[in-house]
Amino acid sequence: MPPGVKPGGGPFGVFMPSGYPSRIVCLTEETTEVLYRLGAGDRVVGVSGYTVRPPEARLKPRVSAYIQANIEKILALHPDLVLAFSDLQAEIVRDLIRRGVWVMTFNQRGIDEIYRMILTLGGMIGLDARAHALIEELEEGVEKVRDQGESLLRRPRVFFEEWPDPLISGIRWVSELIEVAGGLDIFPELRERQDGPGRIVGLEEVARREPEVIIGSWCGKKVRFDTIRNRPGWERIPAVRRGKLYEIKSALILQPGPAALTDGLARLHEIIAEASLG
User: Fold this and answer.
1) Quick one: which of 91, 165, 171, 271 is 20 to 30 A from 147 by CA?
2) What does the pLDDT look like over 193-249, one tens digit per residue?
3) Residue 256 backbone phi and psi in degrees, to 5
4) Are 215 and 268 in contact (CB under 8 A)?
5) CA–CA gap between residue 214 and residue 206 (Å, rounded)
6) DSSP 3-state assignment of 91?
7) Rounded Cα–Cα distance for residues 24 and 45 (Å)
8) Above 70 in pLDDT, residue 3?
9) DSSP state at residue 182
10) Closest CA to 52 of 222, 266, 255
11) Does the domain spanning 5-108 belong to CATH 3.30.365.10?
C-alpha cells in the first residue's frame, strides 16, 4: 500500500488517502444521506436540524437550520469540510470561510445535477467507485418509474404547491420528477427559476390551467386541504371538485438528493397513476 494511504474498506476495494476529509458537517439533509449511502456516515460530525434521513444521522450534533447556523458549534466540531447548499446559505458560508473553514456549496436544481453532486462529493472524499455505483442505482430506479409513467393511459395535469402564501410552484427537480412519474406539470415554464419569488403564481392562473391533481409540500408545515379548497375560484378546479388533493412530506421531495429520486418519486407516481384512471 502506498505511503500515506489507508484502506477505505467495503466491496469496491477503495483506498482513501489520508488527506481526504474525515470530519464533515452537512448543513442540509441530502449530502448527509449521500455520505451515509456511500458508506461514509462515520465521517459526518454535524448535521442540519431538519435531518431525518437516515434515522441514525439524527444522533449527530445539530448545528444549523436552513438559513441559520451556530458557527461556534460548527467550529467546536473541528470540521475539515462543511457542505452547504444554494445562495440561501451564502451568509453562513461567508462566515465559515472567514474563520478558515473549507466549505463546498452545491447548487443542484435538476435530476442531472443531483447525479453530478453525488459524483463530485464522492470524488472529494475518495469514494469515486461508490459514487458511480450509487448513481447507477438511482438512475435505474428513476428510469423504471419513467417506464411506468409512460405506460399510463393518460397524463394528468398536476399543480405542485411548494408554498401556500405566496403561492409557489415546484422547483426544477420536482417538475422533472412529475413528468417522470407520468404527469404534466401545469407550470413547466417556471422550472428553471431557481428562486422562490420567480415561481410565484396567481390563484386565477392556477384555476385557468385546470389541474387534475394538486400536491402540496409546505416545507416544515402541514398542508391544510381546507385552505386549498376554500381559495376564491378554486371550487371549479377539477382536482378540487374530485378531491384529488394530496400531500408529500417535504423531507421526501424538497431535498435535492436520493430521497427525492426514490421515496419522493415513488409517491408522486402512486398519486399520478391513481389520478390517471379518472
Assistant:
1) 171
2) 888 889 999 999 999 999 999 999 998 789 999 999 999 999 999 999 999 999 999
3) -80, 70
4) yes
5) 10
6) helix
7) 6
8) no
9) T
10) 255
11) no
Q: If you count them, how many residues does the chain have?
A: 278
Task: Assign 78 a pLDDT band (cuts: 50, 70, 90).
Answer: very high
What is the DSSP code (8-state) at residue 69?
B
Query: Alpha carbon 242 to chain centroid distance?
Result: 29
Q: At 192, list the grid cell.
A: 428553471
- Fold classification of 152-276 is Rossmann fold (3.40.50)
> Which amino acid makes up residue 73?
K
Backbone angles phi, psi at 261, to 5 degrees: -80, -10
Which sign, positive or negative, has the C-alpha torsion 197, 179, 54, 24? negative
Can you point out the beta strands (E) in 40-144? Answer: 44-48, 62-64, 81-85, 103-106
- Point out which residues pair with 26 in neighbouring strands: 83
Q: Which three cell numbers stand for residue 155?
A: 397524463
Shortest CA distance to 169 belongs to which of 142, 191, 138?
A: 191
State the DSSP string of 228-260: HHTSTTGGGSHHHHTT-EEE--HHHHSSTTHHI
The full set of domain ranges for the chain reads 5-108, 152-276
What percent of the residues of the chain are helix, what percent strand, and what percent coil, each to the nearest 5? 45, 20, 35
Residue 184, strand partner residues: 157
pLDDT for 17 beyond 60: no
* 152-276 and 5-108 share a CATH fold: yes
Measuring CA to CA, how many Å separate 215 from each of 154, 189, 251?
18, 18, 14
